[in-house]
């Protein structure tokens, strides 16, 4: 007689997949229109997936790939608790949201990447699995800012030359 084959659920899945237990962001946060620029929520253990769930994506590539799905754990500061839906304060803060909107900025603390939703902006703090791709995004944003700085320097240099040419005549 043949022995029973090992069932699939006995083995650990070697393929990383998006979480299944997360709830829609709109069940945690109220939808706001228009969204103020300073309405920013922190997201811990954030991961950004393709819509079909086949793998991680870089939001800076949305012009090539389209919308993406964000998963994470929402951290709401005390002064922003008024934006929570009824009953959400005591519930789980693990969420998912579909969007194609993002923004980035630079400050003394480093580079920040925000994901835009109908409920506000989500500042990304990546999960361990997503950290490598997030580091690549930070480098890309850093390069963008370096190019902008170089362009500003060139514009300033051109202005000086034009003024000097005017004085020579």
Characterise this structure:
- With 169 residues, the chain is an alpha/beta fold.
- It has one domain.
- It is 25% helix and 29% strand.
- The chain has two helices and seven strands.
- The protein has helices at residues 62-65, 131-168; strands at residues 23-24, 40-50, 68-75, 94-99, 101-107, 110-117, 120-126.
- Strands 1-4-3-2-7-6-5 form a seven-stranded mixed sheet, with helices on one face.
- The longest helix has 38 residues, at 131-168.
- It is globular and about 60 Å long.
- The termini are far apart.
- The mean pLDDT is 82.
- Helix percentage range: 10-25%
Query: What series of H and E elements makes up the topology?
Result: EEHEEEEEH
Q: Uncertain spans, ≥5 residues at pLDDT below 50?
A: none
Indicate the overall shape. globular
Structural class: alpha/beta
Largest sheet: 7 strands, mixed
Into how many domains do the coordinates divide?
1
Q: Give the total of beta strands.
A: 7
Write out the strand line-up for the largest beta sheet, numbering strands in chain order: 1-4-3-2-7-6-5
**Mean pLDDT, all residues:** 82
Rounded to an integer in angstroms, the radius of gyration calculated over CA atoms is 22 Å
Number of helices: 2
User: Distance N terminus to C terminus?
Assistant: 103 Å
Strand content: 25-35%
